[in-house]
Amino acid sequence: MKFFKLPTQIHKFDDFKGFAEEFKIGEGDLVLTHQFLYDPFMKELNLGADFLMQEKYGVGEPSDEMIDQILADVTAKQYKRIIAVGGGSVIDIAKLLIFKDGKNALDMFEKKIDFIKDKELIIVPTTCGTGSEVTNISIAEIKSKHTKMGLAIDELYADYAVLIPELVKGLPYKFFVYSSIDALIHAIESYVSPNANDFTQMISVKATEMILKGYLDIIEKGEDYRLEILEDFVIASNYAGIAFGNTGVGAVHALSYPLGGTYHVPHGEANYQFFTEVFKTYNRINPDGKIKELNTFLADLLKVEEKDVYDAIENVLDKLLSKKPLKEYGMKEEEIESFTDSVLEKQQRLLANNYVPLSREDILNIYKNLYYSKDSIEEVAATRK
């Protein structure tokens, strides 16, 4: 059985200029990025590459419609390398631009093409969350199916991942928090995955420690302190990506997809909604497996009793950004049932990585608990007696 794999070569630079010089970016390269990154970091370098701005094709996370428009433009010219400089959306799109016969997003996500890679892929992340620069996964909203889908094949591994903390400095506080929470979830879901091993757990622990200690420092010293420790978060995100790239993620991601796909909730924010509720459910079902080791580690790190670790994590995260009930996103009460069925129908790839199997009732109850605020749950219960 496969134990550990990392086919991507990882580089780190102080600035974009150093990266551009060493990698000789120029003719034959397509750089997919954003105008707000191009103007301060790339424009004055006068590189001979072609630059494509994601926002030209729409805003927000990638959809099949957006990807198809970009594919139509990109396939009109032959490129040797695709270079992604951006967050998860840019990276997910760029991964789909490397195939000889890639002309339709849905065909790729449904694996209806031969995945012949004819371009090199270089990924430069500009958030501290996805870890996608070292994974073989691309995710997009498939509008016709009203959900998100993931494609996981080894051809999607980047040839090079390049870490440049300078590029993360402009990330607004809110997006810093949501993206780094995503990395924290990657690390913790990876730790309890059935596919975890000594290598992945070692990396998961380090990523978790770096992120949570960073959060505690930010809470103590103020949100601007994050700018002094960005490199720690960029590296921790990379660690978490390496870990879950080998093990997969589970129910937190699976349950977040209908919310994200239907109400266009950003990926990290949607995952934040489900994180602790899923792990409280895991812990209730089987508190004596890998999750016990995790709880011991988290309790020591947060200086709380093991039984209180998930409440303690909620408290830390809430001090960074408050979590709101699912209904405040526009979710309807009847969608508790339909989202549950959507997860069971469309997200088995992720549910296979759960710490323990979740029944339909388990998933339904997670949605119910998160749909209402604590006060409104008590009110609803009282009216139904």
Automatic annotation (TrEMBL):
<dbReference type="InterPro" id="IPR018211">
    <property type="entry name" value="ADH_Fe_CS"/>
</dbReference>
<dbReference type="Pfam" id="PF25137">
    <property type="entry name" value="ADH_Fe_C"/>
</dbReference>
<feature type="domain" description="Alcohol dehydrogenase iron-type/glycerol dehydrogenase GldA">
    <location>
        <begin position="30"/>
        <end position="165"/>
    </location>
</feature>
<dbReference type="InterPro" id="IPR001670">
    <property type="entry name" value="ADH_Fe/GldA"/>
</dbReference>
<dbReference type="GO" id="GO:0046872">
    <property type="term" value="F:metal ion binding"/>
</dbReference>
<protein>
    <submittedName>
        <fullName>4-hydroxybutyrate dehydrogenase</fullName>
    </submittedName>
</protein>
<feature type="domain" description="Fe-containing alcohol dehydrogenase-like C-terminal">
    <location>
        <begin position="177"/>
        <end position="371"/>
    </location>
</feature>
<dbReference type="GO" id="GO:0004022">
    <property type="term" value="F:alcohol dehydrogenase (NAD+) activity"/>
</dbReference>
<dbReference type="InterPro" id="IPR056798">
    <property type="entry name" value="ADH_Fe_C"/>
</dbReference>
<keyword id="KW-0560">Oxidoreductase</keyword>
<dbReference type="InterPro" id="IPR039697">
    <property type="entry name" value="Alcohol_dehydrogenase_Fe"/>
</dbReference>
<dbReference type="Pfam" id="PF00465">
    <property type="entry name" value="Fe-ADH"/>
</dbReference>
